[in-house]
Amino acid sequence: MAGHRGRGRGVAATAASFVGELLITFGVLLGLFVAYSLWWTNVLADRQADSAAHHLREEWTQKPAGGGDSKAAPHPRSFAAGDSVGFLHIPAMGKDFTVLIRMGTDPEILNEAVAGVYQEPYAAAMPWAKAGNFALAAHRDGHGAKFHNLDKVHQGDSVVVETADTWYIYRVDSTLPQTSKYNTGVVAPIPEGSGYTRPGRYITLTTCTPVYTSRYRMAVWGTLVRTAPVDAQRTLPPELR
């Protein structure tokens, strides 16, 4: 009997050891997956965004794109999904914070570390439009995580959009820390919950919240306060100095 009990304890110990090794292996694999999701995707996405940004600036140097407030090019060109539009600057998220803006919010676009222009359920109005909402989305974690610190943007902060020939300077009027991810009204032409009651020249920034989840959405709203032409040296406006 003693021999049977000994063999039983040995089998149980072996099984426990095997289960322990499986748990350790699972933990290592989970850690690698998290590292891939939150670090390596950032590396790859940033490389793609840097390349696209460099290409856009070269394009501007060779043949500037039109902007609605430019006397030299009063008629803006149209943009297709995936096209680069310009750059978004948000000093509250870092002195040199800049993100490339591209048309569309499909995953294959946002995954390239950019801010995407909403095309549905509402087609965003471009900055040079006489009225409308220039609504953008970007990832908060992974794939560049460009809006990771969007919660640091508050009322009164400046948000600047740079196009080929015009700086568009917005002032943040209000924020929405959390809402349903199905609340499409936050990107409507007159965004719901923003406090705006009439058509204007607005900007909306959206991302997931809380961090490391996609359970809810947060939004930041601003109003265009002025525009400035881009000079040959692309001198930064005072809000970015």
Automatic annotation (TrEMBL):
Residue numbers annotated as active site: 139 (proton donor/acceptor), 208 (acyl-thioester intermediate)
Membrane-spanning residues: 12-39
InterPro entries tied to this protein: Sortase, Sortase_Class_E, Sortase_dom-sf, Sortase_E
Keyword Cell cycle: no
Pfam families listed in its UniProt record: Sortase
UniProt KW keywords: Hydrolase, Membrane, Transmembrane, Transmembrane helix
GO molecular function: hydrolase activity
Protein name in the entry: Class E sortase
Species of origin: Peterkaempfera bronchialis
Higher taxonomy: Bacteria, Bacillati, Actinomycetota, Actinomycetes, Kitasatosporales
